[in-house]
Design goal:
The protein is 40% helix and 14% strand. Helix 1 packs parallel to helix 2, helix 5 runs antiparallel to helix 6 and helix 7 packs antiparallel against helix 8. By secondary structure, it is of the alpha+beta class. It has a five-stranded mixed beta sheet with strand order 1-4-5-11-7. It has ten helices and 15 strands. It has three domains: 146 residues, Deoxyribonuclease I, Chain A (4-Layer Sandwich); 112 residues, no CATH class; 43 residues, no CATH class.
Length: 346
């Protein structure tokens, strides 16, 4: 503990992780001490950790409104963050957490306060979110981080159906698809929905089932590795090892599909890498808020979905789509051009 950080260890529900509170040096000539201290905190131990505080610096020029900042200042901060293996988590609220209180051209706003986490911490709490609260008396906005390991009930209700690549080749998958496509002469969208319903009912291979089966097989393998080597035990061990290899491949295929990191070939045993890429992709594609043409703000998942559907319905039925003002300009966060496919995701 110093004037610039407080490092605490959290032990809860069988998990252990660190949570330093950080305050960066306010003067530019001393800012290098901040990054030196950040690196020392990273060397304290391998435990997952989350760093919360006022860093007195921005990572990118886009995190400033008014004024200028030397590129080398931001580069030094980014270098320290990269070396420590830290990353931002999604936030909601006004983008800038500091306001110097001046007016006109003298006003300066920037994002000095943030929460940064390691990849191992994010693996423990993948659905955590940061909130920038409203500023009152202070020139800084308070920040609040919601730490959670589970997805919100609302997000669960809005979960989109996706075809899983690991289903290919599983018994019953092809038959379920054939039943849907041969079930009538409906239009393509109706047929796709029926196909999705058939596959949901079939529920061939899910990641939950794969993980459970993998755990059970490994427990059995542990018992087979002990004791005498009877003939039947040797044969069973061979089968269990083969089953484990197949389940590991299914698990990696599942996360590879979600990560979109398609430059690595299937079977390279990069499951952890794919899992983290999938988590980053989910954060990147998340829309936390949307504003329509009438400046109405929607934050609930269902409201955002309805607003987006209304936008595209108006866009594709308008006789002059080029003049449509585009209610999507108010979307906060980055949105990729990718659409959630109804049936398949390659």
């Amino acid at each position: 503990m110093t004037n610039h950080y407080i490092d605490v260890t959290i032990d809860s529900e069988g998990l252990s992780w660190r949570m330093p509170g950080f305050y960066g040096w306010p003067t530019i000539q001393d800012r290098w001490l901040s990054w030196q201290q950040l690196r020392l905190l990273a060397e304290e131990g391998p435990d997952p950790w989350i760093c919360i505080g006022d860093f007195n610096e921005v990572l990118y020029a886009s995190e400033m409104l008014g004024g200028e900042r030397q590129q080398w200042q931001m580069n030094n901060f980014r270098d320290a963050v990269d070396e420590c293996g830290l990353r931002d988590i999604p936030y909601e609220g006004y983008a800038y957490t500091f306001d110097n209180g001046q007016v006109g051209a003298d006003n300066r706003q920037c994002r000095l306060d943030r929460v940064m986490v390691t990849g191992t911490w994010l693996d423990l709490f993948p659905y955590s979110k940061l909130f920038h609260l409203d500023r009152e008396w202070s020139d800084h906005s308070p920040i609040c981080v919601h730490i959670t390991r589970v997805r919100s009930e609302e997000d669960k209700r809005m979960k989109t159906f996706r075809f899983e690549q690991v289903w290919v080749g599983e018994d019953g998958c092809e038959e379920a698809i054939q039943r849907a496509w041969l079930g009538g002469d409906d239009d393509i969208m109706t047929t796709l929905k029926r196909c999705a319903a058939e596959l949901k009912e079939w529920t061939g291979v899910s990641i939950g089932k794969v993980v459970r089966d993998l755990k059970r097989k490994r427990e059995r393998l542990k018992r087979l590795n002990e004791g005498e080597r009877r003939e039947r035990d040797v044969q069973e061990r061979k089968k269990v090892v083969k089953d484990i290899a197949n389940l590991i491949k299914q698990e990696e295929t599942f996360w590879r599909q979600r990560s979109r990191a398609l430059w690595l070939r299937d079977g390279d045993k990069n499951t952890t890498f794919f899992h983290r890429k999938a988590t980053q992709r989910k954060e990147k594609n998340h829309i936390s808020r949307i504003v329509d043409d009438n400046d109405r703000v929607y934050e609930r998942t269902l409201e955002i979905a309805n607003c987006a559907a209304s936008y595209f319905e108006t866009l594709f039925t308008s006789s002059r789509p080029n003049n449509f003002s585009g209610m999507m300009e108010g979307v906060e966060g980055r949105v990729t051009s990718e659409m959630n496919e109804l049936l398949t995701e390659n």
